[in-house]
Amino acid sequence: MNLPNGAKFNSIVFGNSSPTLNGGTITTSGDFNFTMTGGTVKIGSVLAGNSKIINAAGTSYLWLNSASTLTGDASGVVLDMTSATGNTIVNAAQVNWGATKTVKMAGDLLLRVDDALGAAKLEITSGTLYSTSNARFLSSPVSLKGKLALGSWIDSAQGDYRYALNLRGAVDLNAATREVNTAVDLTLSGPVTNGAITKTGAQQLTMSGDVASKGALGGVTAFTLSTGDATFANATSLEGTYTATTGTSTFTGATYLRSIVFGNSSPTLNGGTITTSGDFNFTMTGGTVKIGSVLAGNSKI
């Protein structure tokens, strides 16, 4: 469908197959609903108006190939992926989505450009993030209400998504323990607050955000490394107990932890000085723990 001069609709709905929407600005007083159960929809037009994109596409894929000027619904939601966990591929940075806007993610979100969501907040309930470049970054603040996962996938029609991602915005764990799963290397370079993390997935998690509240429980209240490796370049986002049962934990900057516990298996602790107000507890019933960091503070091993 080509709309070279723009158009106005009450609402717009795409069904099955793989249509393409090209041309000028399209304004709707309703929402842009994508309800496919198969195929791929590619949007080259500029979507506009007091409305939002609803991706209820199931296993289908919705490509956003232009920057919309949508103002969203009454709550500021500009993209809602929660209806049927639709998959969205962002191929153009949504530079018009400001800090008062929200993207609700429950399906997969595939990022082909940096800052794909503009300044909008990303609210994650479920689904997986994907990246097309090891240098890819997203500056949006993140509100985690479920698992944070970075996946690895390649498809002849949709592209190669086997690359790392840097989340530069603040991450709010919403007062719960959240799983962070890394099929590809993931960096959290913004502050991480208000909850605990369990790290799973074979690849590296790097945290370098600083909440500037050392010792005040303003950051991550507990961190468990259960699979893979973790690196902390400036780990004052970690304010609670650090538990490692596997892998290598690397601290490249000075780190404050309330306590540190090593469980079974054979974890390794490398890097800079680690200070704790609790004790360094080693509770293994088997395996070998190797400590390369400098343990410091009013505590004991």
Describe this structure in words.
The protein is elongated and about 70 Å long. Helices cover 0% and strands 48% of the residues. It has strands spanning 2-3, 7-9, 12-14, 20-23, 25-28, 32-34, 40-43, 46-49, 53-55, 61-64, 69-70, 77-80, 87-90, 102-105, 109-111, 121-124, 129-131, 137-138, 142-144, 148-150, 153-155, 159-161, 165-167, 171-182, 186-188, 192-200, 205-207, 220-225, 230-232, 238-244, 248-251, 255-257, 259-262, 268-271, 273-276, 280-282, 290-291, 294-296. A hairpin with a 3-residue loop joins β21 (153-155) and β22 (159-161). The chain is mostly beta strands and 301 residues long. The chain has no helices and 38 strands. It starts with a strand and ends in a 5-residue tail after the last strand. Strands 3, 6, 9, 12, 14, 16, 19, 20, 24, 26, 28, 30, 33 and 36 form a 14-stranded parallel β-sheet that branches. The protein has an 8-stranded parallel β-sheet with strand order 18-23-25-27-29-31-34-37, with no helix packed on it. The chain has a 7-stranded parallel β-sheet with strand order 1-4-7-10-13-15-17, with no helix packed on it.
Short description:
The protein is mainly β. It has strands at 2-3, 7-9, 12-14, 20-23, 25-28, 32-34, 40-43, 46-49, 53-55, 61-64, 69-70, 77-80, 87-90, 102-105, 109-111, 121-124, 129-131, 137-138, 142-144, 148-150, 153-155, 159-161, 165-167, 171-182, 186-188, 192-200, 205-207, 220-225, 230-232, 238-244, 248-251, 255-257, 259-262, 268-271, 273-276, 280-282, 290-291, 294-296.
